[in-house]
Amino acid sequence: MTLGQAPNAEDSCLKNHQQPPVAESLSSLPTVIDSSDQEKGGSFVSKRQDNSDGQDSGPESDTIQDLSDSPHDEGAKCENGLARQPSAATTVIDFPEGGLQGWLVVFGSFCAMISVFGLINSAAVFESYFSTHQLVNHSASEIGWIFSLYLFIVFFVGIQVGPIFDRHGARLLVAAGSVLVVLSLMLLSLSKTYYQIMLTYSVLGGLGGALLNCPAYGAITHFFHVRRGLATGVATISGGIGGIVFPIMLRYTLPSIGFPWSCRILGFIMLGLAVPANLFIKTRLKPKISHDGAKVSSLLPDFSGFRDLRYAFSAIGIFFMEWGLFMPLTYIVSYAAAHGQDATESYLLLSYLNAGSVLGRVLPGLFADRIGRFNVVIITISLCVILVLAMWLPAAMSKSVLIGYAVLFGFASGSNLGLVPVCLGQLCDARHFGRYYSTAMMVASFGTLSSVPIGGALLEMGSVETGWRAVIIFSGLSYFIALACYTSARVLAVGFNPRVKF
Question: Would you say the pTM of this structure is higher than 0.85?
């Protein structure tokens, strides 16, 4: 039965949701089954254009390609914009899959993400410095709220940024976000009290990050589909590079020129990165037009996607992933210092972790395009569970084990962060990506808000070793729950067969 024979969109949606019978013997199946081949009537195939002159099918500027609904598009998705068939999330749309303009968008997103995630990947340095200088009289839990609030604002405010991006594009959002990020660092250099640091670093910096985050990810989905995992991975290595460079830089600048000028130097770096981000981040797909001529994308947040259990499990999985991630990311420097390592030398652990993260964002993204995005993210989350409980938990005074853990965990966790938006994009139309990505990250924002304060509270339990053991076990269990969520989402989408590409 073809999509055109469906009596209406709802009926077509329900029928397409059924998986085709797997009657063939396993010996006759390919090594990896692409779930996009399971739908014959109207499945999407990206038109890949690798032109040597760098031209692509999209317009050169923010003038966006207008694509209205097609009758053949109805059966592939439900009314809330989420695809019933895994790889039929976006239909009848041609993606450049590269070209000069597509890769310039990736470069612009790379620069924007350094301003957001390069800074937060250096949080352990700031946490360690604040705890021994400006905020020496504050508890670990109180200091933890500074970093949790920053990411909470980045993700929570994004629930409104996403629909604005889908409707109006990226230019104004990126410009405003760049200004706020630079301003926050300049004002942080003057901050001496708890509330001043909270307002400058967390609130002002978080608002700037929220305006940059969704456009940086969303613009890539307008230019890539088949190669989206690779393109997103290339852009997200920025967080790892920032996490390598900034801690090393702060290791030398904090003792020599002090905290104020260290922050100002960071601010000037962000100002330089804002130039390519504003020049190159752009969109090419207009909001969908319904049959009566009205635009489908509104400026209001949309929670209807949670009626799809695949999307709901994916969003909840990100929540627990944030819980697991920010324990080592925030406390690994303090952990090393508490176990006999020099405080300044401990800053290098964060650089080791982020060095592993750089490879973890590119290589798994490349393999994810070949064997399935959900398949790869499930593998890397499993690796995070093993590394936290089998390496970090018994590391204690062993410097070599701690370095090995930092590099390997950076690789595994970096791939998680790079693949999360790609997995979400696999469930929805590219023209709805901003809305659904930002809604999922709004759920995750409550994980980031509570993760570091929970870690600080756990550190105050009993003896020092008891506190650190509690933090590590909490991180491992959080990753385990995230693993269960992503596995459930995959099973709901394509069943239990591990050889299906999804």
Answer: no
